[in-house]
Write a structure and sequence with these properties.
Layout lengths: L5 H5 L7 H15 L9 H15 L2 H8 L29 H6 L2 H7 L22 E7 L1 H6 L1 E12 L5 E12 L8 E4 L15 E7 L5 E4 L2 E8 L1 H6 L1 E5 L6 E5 L8 E4 L12 E7 L7 H13 L11
Parallel strand pairs: 1-5, 7-11
Antiparallel strand pairs: 2-3, 4-5, 6-7, 8-9, 10-11
Helix pairs in contact: 2-3
C-alpha cells in the first residue's frame, strides 16, 4: 500500500485554509470530471481528487492526517503507525459506501475498521443531539488494576478564524473503573459536541488501551510475567518472591521445572466479576562462563553428569 499525499493531489499547501481547499476542489473537479474532461486519465484523477477532498474538507480527518507529518512522500510504501489515532478526539466516521469507493490507503486511516470508523452519526432535524465523540487512549496497567481518577489529554481539531485547521489540547479528569480491560469504553456524558436547537450535547467515548509494560503482557484479565530462574533453582526447586500487580508474593518453584513451564497465581490478574490470574512463565538463565572458576564448574558438569540434551533426536 502506497502513501497518498492529499495536498499534492489537490495542488494546495499544507497550511491552506478550508476556503483554499474548496476553491481548488471546484477548479480540479471541472477539469477532471469524466463527463466533460478530455484528459486520458480523467476518471482516475477525479477519483483521487474526491478522496483527497473527503479528507481535507473535514477538519477532524485533516487534523488526524496531518499527524502523519510531512516526512512521507507520495508512492512511498506505507502502513499506519501502531499508535495511529492515539489520544485524538473526533466525531465523524465514514459510511460503508466511502470504504468501497476510496482506496485501501483511505480505508486504513479512516475506514470502518480504523479508529475513525467507530464514530457515531449525528441525528438530523432542527432539535438534534450533539455528535458523540470518540478517542483511543492508553493508560498504565497499574492504573487499570487500581482504578481511580486520572488526567487525560486529548488533541481536538479546531478551525481558526482564518479557516485553517489546528489541533488544540483538551484536558479531562476521568475516573478509570477498577479492573478495566483493553478495548473497553468509558462513556463521559455530555462531553461531545453541543446539541442543535436546544438538543442535548453528545457524549465522549474513550476506548482503553494499555501502555507497553516492562514486566507484564496482558490477555483479557490475565497477566503474564516471565520469571528468570537459575539452572539449580529449576533443577532443585526453591521459593522465590515474585512481583504481582497487588504486591510481591512467595512462589514455590517445583523441583525439575522446565523452561517455558507456566505457574498460575489464581485471582492475581486484573480484578473484576471473574478476576484474572497471573501466569508465571519460567525462563532458565545460564550463568556466563566468564572466569576460570566458572569454566571449571561447567567442565565438571560436562564430565560428571550423564546428560545428553539431544538424546531424543531422530527417534
Amino acid at each position: 500500500m502506497n502513501f497518498k499525499d492529499y495536498y499534492q493531489v489537490m495542488g494546495v499547501a499544507r497550511d491552506a485554509s478550508q476556503e483554499d481547499i474548496k476553491r481548488a476542489y471546484r477548479k480540479l473537479a471541472r477539469k477532471y470530471h469524466p463527463d466533460v474532461s478530455k484528459e486520458a486519465d480523467a476518471e482516475e484523477r477525479f477519483k483521487e481528487l474526491q478522496e483527497a477532498h473527503e479528507v481535507l474538507k473535514d477538519p477532524e480527518k485533516r487534523a488526524a492526517y496531518d499527524q502523519l507529518g510531512s516526512q512521507w512522500r507520495a508512492g512511498q510504501e506505507f502502513r499506519p503507525p501502531p499508535d495511529w489515532g492515539q489520544d485524538f478526539e473526533f466525531s465523524t466516521g465514514p459510511s460503508a459506501s466511502e470504504d468501497a469507493r476510496f482506496s485501501d490507503f483511505f480505508a486504513s486511516l479512516f475506514g470502518q475498521d480504523s479508529p475513525f470508523g467507530r464514530a457515531r452519526p449525528r441525528a438530523s432535524g432542527f432539535k438534534s443531539p450533539g455528535r458523540d465523540h470518540y478517542a483511543r487512549v492508553q493508560i498504565d496497567l497499574e492504573d487499570a488494576f487500581r482504578g481511580g481518577a486520572h488526567t487525560i489529554e486529548l488533541m481536538a481539531p479546531e478551525l481558526t478564524p482564518e479557516g485553517r485547521v489546528v489541533s488544540r489540547p483538551r484536558t479531562l479528569r476521568v475516573t478509570i473503573p477498577k479492573g478495566v480491560t483493553e478495548g473497553q469504553q468509558i462513556r463521559l456524558a455530555g462531553q461531545g459536541s453541543p446539541g442543535l436547537g436546544g438538543g442535548p450535547p453528545g457524549d465522549l467515548y474513550l476506548e482503553i488501551g494499555f501502555k507497553p509494560h516492562s514486566g507484564y503482557t496482558v490477555e483479557g484479565r490475565d497477566v503474564t510475567l516471565v520469571l528468570p530462574v537459575a539452572p539449580w533453582e529449576a533443577a532443585l526447586g526453591t521459593r522465590i518472591e515474585v512481583p504481582t500487580l497487588g504486591g510481591p508474593v512467595d512462589v514455590r518453584i517445583p523441583q525439575g521445572a522446565r523452561a517455558g513451564q507456566r505457574l498460575r497465581l489464581k485471582g492475581r490478574g486484573l480484578p473484576g466479576p471473574a478476576p484474572g490470574d497471573q501466569l508465571i512463565e519460567l525462563k532458565i538463565v545460564l550463568p556466563p562462563a566468564d572466569s576460570p572458576r566458572a569454566r571449571e564448574l561447567y567442565e565438571q558438569m560436562r564430565n560428571e553428569l550423564d546428560f545428553d540434551p539431544r538424546s531424543g533426536f531422530g527417534r
